[in-house]
Amino acid sequence: MNNGDFWTLLKKSGYQFGSTLNMNSIPGATAPFPVTHGTTILAFKYQGGVLVAGDRRATAGTTVMYDRTDKVIDIDRHSVMAIAGVPATAFEIARIMEHTFKYFRRSQLQELSLDGKVRALSRLLKENIPMAIQGIGAVAPIYAAYDLSKKEGKIFFYDILGAEFEGVEFAVSGSGSPAVRGILHYENRWGPQPLSRVSEESAIVLTIRLLETASEFDSATGGVNIEAGLYPLIKLVTATGTREISLDVLENLFSRNIKSNPIRS
Hints:
22% strand; five-stranded antiparallel β-sheet; globular
């Protein structure tokens, strides 16, 4: 693998690897020390725009490091990025995007196009390939924005090498995402109505249930903790901008709408 075609292809495509990259560590993606990260982030279109959410747990291996992590970050007035992967790298990428978009707006007196924003995130992920390949800096984010020119919400998801994909109706990422992806597909195709027609309140209730389900199957995903006041971080991306759902609203919707069936799983 050290001299494999993959690396030759990457170099011919213009990728520059940092001098600190240890090529001998690449086979088997072996890192200098064992580090694993997990989470569950999701985004789907509802009748008002795009809902983006993430659980609050941060882990290192099997250790729970923190239970109040903000995994959905405002990038500008009409876009957010949900992070899955190494928090330090993800937060840095989000910070660079925020400043890049702000600089463009102030220097060009106009907003960067949505295509430009999507490509900017892709470029940052490609620049992070050396860290991602070593297994110590991988990030697989979801970027959601409201396209004012087309008057509709947009969802994009990425792999750790920077390839971008548009989620037509929804996108998920993180170690707990397989369970959530299946439920979203089921709801969108065979539920009472397509996700894009779901009301804001129903979308929030569905999201809490989805992340609670993910936490049942993925130890790296945190669920709801009523006693501690811990709920998923949920943000809405609409024509009027981004908005975070407050703790009071989450507590109210949870108490009124979410009850477990009296059965053991």
